[in-house]
Amino acid sequence: MALESASLLKAGLVLFVAAQVLPSVSGCNRVFYEGMINEHCLAKFKLDMGAQDQGLWCSWQDTMEIYERLTNCTYQVALRMDCYWPNQIIDSFFMQIHRIYFHDCPLTGRLLHDPPASILAPFIAVPVLVTLLMTALVVWRSKRTEGVL
């Protein structure tokens, strides 16, 4: 019994030491990684977005290429620094980007507008006509009561 306790204690100690050592050996320096994506990726993104008219920031067609370059840049930096991608740093990085540049954009990424009249008219006319037809049918049947039973 004492031998089993000692071996369990040793195993626990080994796991504890491994948990303390392995994160520092993993190769990803989080502070340096965050600095690199800010220095290389965010700086380029700011220049590209600054060169674009602010009214076009919500247009996905106009910002897609810039956004893809930013995403690819963060991925390439993560690969070179032996960091996982995506990770918590990237999540908060992109949340910050969206808060600064895309906070006024609709969820779909394009400006909302009414559909064309050729599409809207049938969706309005058909229910109105069906309602009128059903009302006329009920009135006609209620006036013609003979022979129903």
Describe this structure as you would to a colleague.
This protein is mainly α and 149 residues long. The protein is 72% helix and 0% strand. The longest helix is centred in the last third of the chain and has 27 residues, at 117-143. It is elongated, with a radius of gyration of 32 Å.
Largest sheet: none
Spatial separation of the terminal alpha carbons:
93 Å
The poorly predicted ranges are 17-25
| Percent in helix | over 70%
Structural class: mainly alpha
Strand elements, count: 0
Number of helices, where a helix is a run of at least 4 consecutive DSSP H or I residues: 5
Give the helix/strand layout.
Blueprint: H1 2-25, H2 30-51, H3 60-80, H4 88-101, H5 117-143
Tell me briefly what this model is:
The chain is mainly alpha-helical and 149 residues long. Helix content is 72%, strand content 0%.
